[in-house]
Each structure stands twice: as C-alpha cells, then as structure tokens.
What does this fold into?
Amino acid sequence: MKELVEIIAKALVDSPEEVHVTEKETDRAIVLELSVASSDMGKVIGKQGRIAKAIRSVVKAAASKENKKVIVDIVQ
It folds into this structure.
C-alpha cells in the first residue's frame, strides 16, 4: 500500500523527490502518513479535498482485496 500512495502522489506533485510515505501499523489498521512539499500540498488535497478522497478510495479498494484496513493521513 505504501508504494501505491507514493506512485500516486509523485504523479501529482511538482517535487516528487520530496514525497515521503511512512507506514505505522496499529492493532486495528495500517496508517500511511503522506508528506509532500508545502507548495504541493494543494495539489495532493485538491479542491474541497476531492483528490485526497480519491487517493483514499483507491487505497481502500486495494486494501479490501487483502482484508486490511488502511488509513491515509496527509501531514505537513
């Protein structure tokens, strides 16, 4: 899942070298924290959060095949 989020985020931003995804596993779910350059934050979130919601939907669909719960957080 981490690689999927990285690929999507790098395709959206102007500075793909500043895209970092960290994975934290809890007892209930896997938490993926996506961080990008501050100038690219708007491109990852999108108007009214539409792009962020789409990223979460794609990851959720991929995780459902593996019967896992994945949470994507966008951090600064």
Summary: The mean pLDDT is 93. The domain at 2-75 is CATH 3.30.300.20 (GMP Synthetase; Chain A, domain 3).
